[in-house]
C-alpha cells in the first residue's frame, strides 16, 4: 500500500531544498566579482538579478518550510533531484538575460548541460559572450562536476545528519572518508590542487602560443574546469579546435583522464597506497576499454583513409574518442565532420566509448568502469560454473581498494544500472528518429546527452524541436543522478496522487 | 609528518600523470601501427 506524503514530508524537503538553493545563490556572487574585475557593467547586473531571485527564493523556502526534522532516505533523494532542477531553472536566469540564448528553454538547456557536465550547447554568438557569463558557464560545470550537494555539504549544510542520504542521492555511493563532510572537502582539495596545476599548464601553453597572458590564463581556467569536471564547454565556438595546439590537446587529454578517476582512488594514491593504480579494477578496465574502442574507431577511420598521418589520427580520432570515453565532449573536429569525414564503424567506436564512461565517484557520467568490470567478472563466474564440475565452488573476486567477492546483489545492482542506461540511450535515439534523424545520428546524440558527454554530430542546434530539447534535458538529468533519485521523485508524485491517507 | 604527507601527495599526483601518459603513448602506438599497416 502506498501512503500519501504528509505535510511534514513536504516541509522537510522544502527546507533542505531551500538551503541548497541559498548555496546556489551565493555561488552566483562569484561571477559578479569577475565581472567587476573585467569592468563589465551589464553582465554584472544580470548576475545581481539572478543572485537576488535565487537568494529570495531560497530564503522564502527555508522560512516557509522551517522544520527541525531530519531527512530520511526518501527526503534526501527527492531533495537531490529537485535541487538539480532548481539549479537549472535559476542558474539559467543570468544566461538568458545576456541575450545570447534564443529562449529561456535554450538557457535552461545550457544550464542543465553545464551542471550535469554534459557540454551540449544552444548558445548563439559565443565568441562575443562576456567574460562574466563565460566564467559562469564553466563555473557551473565545476559545481556540477563536484556535485551541487557536495558544494552544499562543504559550505552550507554543515552538520545536517541527512547529509549522507543526499550524498548518495547524487550518485556518489562511495564514501572517501568515514565522514561525508570530510569526503566532500577532500573532493574539493583534489579539484583545487589540479585547478592550480592545470590552469598554470594551460595558461603558459596559451601564452607561448601567442595569446595575451590575461586571456591565456582565463581560457586556461575555463578549459581546466570543463576538462577536469568532464564537462566540455569551451570559451570559443570552435571548442578546442580554436587553439590549433597539439600541446594544449595533450594537456587537456591528461586533465580529462584525471577527471575520470575515482576520488577514492585519488585519496589512496595521495596517501601512499600507490600500487592501487595497477591493481584497481576500474583503472584496468578503463585502459582496456579505451584501447579497444580506439582500435574500432581507428580501424573505421583507416578504412576510408580519413586521417592518413599518425599525428592527424591521434589529434582527430583519439581526441574525440578519449573526450567521449571520459564524458567530456571537447572537440577538435566540426560536428558535421562526423557525417562527412567519418564512417559508421568509427562513429560506433565513439558511441561505445561514450556509453561506457569513466570511474564511479568521479565527475563522469554513463555506465562506468566498476560496473562494467563487475558485470564481466560475474559473467566469467557463471561460465566457470557451467564448465566446472557441479560440486566445484566457484568464487570470483575483484580488486577495488580492497579484495571483494562478486556477490549476487552487487552484480544485480551493476546490471540494473547498466540496463537503465542502455534503455535511456535507446529511448532518446527512438525519439530522435521520430523527428526524422537517422538511427546512428540519433543514437550518437542521445548517448552523448544521457552519458553526460557533449560530443555532437549536429543534431543539437537552436532550431531542433522543443520536444527534443526537453528529451535531452531529461536524459542529462537522469543520467547524471544515475536514476535512483529521479525514480524516487517520480514515485513521490505517484504517491501524492494515488497514495492512501 | 607534514613533509611526509606532501611527499606522498606529490608522488600520488606523479603516478596519476604517468598513468595518463601511458594511455597517450599506447594510443600513439596504435596510430603508428595503423600508419605502418596502411
Structural class of chain A: mainly alpha
Spatial extent as radius of gyration of chain A: 22 Å
| Strand arrangement in the largest pleated sheet of chain A | 1-2
Largest interface: A-B, 34 and 25 residues
Q: Sketch the major β-sheet of chain A.
A: 2 strands, antiparallel
**What is the chain-wise order of helices and strands of chain B?**
H
Give me the oligomer status: heterodimer
Strand content of chain B: under 5%
Order of helices and strands of chain A: HHHHHHHHHHHHHHHHHHEEHHHH
From the alpha-carbon coordinates, what is the Rg of chain B to the nearest angstrom?
17 Å
Determine the fraction of residues in helical runs of chain B and give it as a percent range. over 70%
Number of strands of chain A: 2
**In percent, how much strand structure appears in the residues of chain A?**
under 5%
Q: Estimate the mean pLDDT confidence of chain B.
A: 91
**Outline of chain B:** rod-shaped
Q: How far apart lie the N and C ends of chain A? A: 10 Å
Counted by DSSP, the helix tally of chain A is: 22
Helix content of chain A: 55-70%
Q: So how many helices of chain B?
A: 1
Q: Low-confidence spans of chain B: pLDDT under 50, at least 5 residues? A: none
Output the structural class of chain B: mainly alpha
Account of the 3D structure:
The complex is a heterodimer of chains A (501) and B (38). Helix content of chain A is 68%, strand content 2%. Chain A contains 22 helices and two strands. In chain A, helix 14 packs antiparallel against helix 17 (344-356). The model of chain A has no long low-confidence stretch (mean pLDDT 89). Chain A has helices at residues 7-27, 29-38, 41-64, 73-97, 104-115, 131-146, 148-155, 163-169, 180-208, 213-228, 246-259, 263-270, 276-279, 281-303, 310-325, 337-340, 344-356, 369-387, 408-434, 439-450, 466-481, 484-498, and strands spanning 397-400, 402-405. Chain A has 501 residues and is mainly alpha-helical. Chain B has one helix at 2-37. The longest helix of chain B has 36 residues, at 2-37. Chain B is rod-shaped, with a radius of gyration of 17 Å. The mean pLDDT of chain B is 91. Classes of the chains: A mainly alpha (501), B mainly alpha (38). Chain A binds chain B through residues 193, 197, 250, 253-254, 257-258, 261, 266, 269-272, 274, 277, 283, 287, 290-291, 294-295, 298-299, 302, 305, 308-311, 313-314, 317-318, 322, and chain B through 5, 8-9, 11-13, 15-17, 19-24, 26-28, 30-32, 34-35, 37-38.
